[in-house]
Amino acid sequence: MATYNGAAYLERQINSIIGQSYPYWELIIRDDGSTDGTLEMIQNFCSRDARITLIHYGNIHGSACRNFSQLFDWAFENKKDYVLFADQDDIWLEKKLERTYEVMLEKEKIFGAKMPLLLYSNLSFIDANDQPINVNLPLPATLNLPLLINENYAWGCTIMLNPAAVQRVKHIPASSVNHDYYIALVISAFGKNILLNENLILYRQHQNNVSGNVNKMTFASRFNRYFKHSDAMLKPLTDNYNLVNSFFCRYRKALNQQQYHIVHDFLESYRRGFLALVSKMIQHKIFKIGLGKNLIYFYTLYSLRSRVVESFNEGKAE
Predict the structure, then answer these.
(1) Of 31, 23, 73, the residue nearest 51 (C-alpha)
(2) Beta bridge partners of 199
(3) 3-state SS assignment for residue 55
(4) Mean of the per-residue pLDDT values of the chain
(5) What pLDDT, on the 0 to 100 scale, is given for residue 155?
(6) Is residue 182 helix, strand or coil?
(7) CA separation for the pair 152, 191 (Å, rounded)
(8) Which of left, alpha, beta for 33 (phi over 0: left; psi -120 to 50: alpha)?
(9) Whole-angstrom Cα distance, residue 119 to residue 96?
(10) Which of 130, 226, 227, 246 lies closest to 185, judged by CA?
(11) Mean of the pLDDT values across residues 131-137?
(12) Contact yes or no for 171/183 (Cβ under 8 A)
C-alpha cells in the first residue's frame, strides 16, 4: 500500500484488509511524506497487528507511481510471491483475497506456475461517503499487447501477480507514470492478463483521486475533453507514449518478432505522421474497445500527435 495524506479514508481501508476471510497476508506500507496524521494511524495499526509493516525504503518520491515502484522493488528484493496493490482510500470486500488467490491457483494449474500471470477483477464505485455510484465498468476478458498500447484496463487496486510475474517485471520505472499500466504491458508480452469478472473492491471516487475518476467515463465528459478541450488530452497522450517507449526500450530484445513490430511500428509511425500512424494501427489492430472511443481517439491523435512528439523530444533533451 502506497500512502500519502490519506487519513480521511485509510482506517476503513486497512480495517477491510484486516477483515478478509483469507487471513494469511502481509500488508506492507510505504508512506511518501504525509503531514495529516496518516503515519500515526499506520503506526497504531502496526502496533496492533503483526501482519502490518511500515517500511522506509528507497529515495524516490513525489507520486503514487513512484511510491508503488519503490514498494515493488522492495517486494522483488525480499522475494515476495503473490503481490497485490492496495489504494489507501478504497474498501476491500470480505472475500477479495480469498477469491483472487483461489482463482490464481486455478489458473496456475492450467498454465503452469512458471507462466507470469496477472489476475485483474472488476470493481464497484462508491462516493466520498461510502454511497454506491451506479456505474458499470465493462472489462475485456484478456489484455493483449495491441489493446494495451492504447489504454490500460487492469486497474492496479484489483490486480494480483503470481511469483513468476513478479520475477518477470523485476522493477517498475518511476518514469512509467502508471505502475499498473506498465505491469500489464510486461505481462501481455511474456505471460497472460486474465479477468476475474467479479466486483471485489469498493473503489472510492472523490475530488483527490489520483487515478481514474468515474465522471471521466461518461460520453459527455469524453466529448468535452476530446473535442471542446482537446488540449487537456496532451498530457495523457504524452504519458502513454512515454510509457510504451519505456517498455520498448527495456524489453525490445526479449520480444518476439510480431511483438517487436507492433510496438516499434507504433512508436515510429507516431513520429512520422498521422496517416502513417493510423495505417500501422489498423495493420496491427491497435484499437480501443468501442467504435465511439476509437473515433474520438483518432481525432485527438490528428490534433495532438505532433505536439506529443515535441513534448517527448523535449523530455529527452532534458
Answers:
(1) 23
(2) 122
(3) strand
(4) 91
(5) 95
(6) helix
(7) 16
(8) left
(9) 12
(10) 246
(11) 91
(12) no
From start to end of 110-251, where are the E strands? 117-126, 132-133, 160-161, 192-204
Grid coordinates representing 73? 522493488
Instruction: Look at residue 79 in the predicted model and tell me its pLDDT.
Output: 93
H or E segment to which residue 246 belongs: helix 234-251
**In 3D, which of 56, 49, 54 has the Cα closest to residue 19?**
49
Least confident stretch, 222-236, 251-265, 300-314: 222-236
Taking residue 173's Cβ as centre, other Cβ atoms within 10 Å add up to: 17
Residue 8's pLDDT band, with cuts at 50, 70 and 90, is: very high
> Is 113 in a helix, a strand, or coil?
coil
Query: What pLDDT score was predicted for residue 77?
Result: 95
In sequence order, the β-bridge partners of residue 56 are: none
| DSSP per position, 58-96 | -S--SSHHHHHHHHHHHHHHTT--SEE---TT-EE-TTH
Q: What is the pTM of this model?
A: 0.90
What average pLDDT does the segment 107-115 reach?
A: 98
Residue 219's pLDDT is: 47
Residues contacting residue 148 through CB under 8 Å, at least 6 positions apart:
181, 184, 185, 188
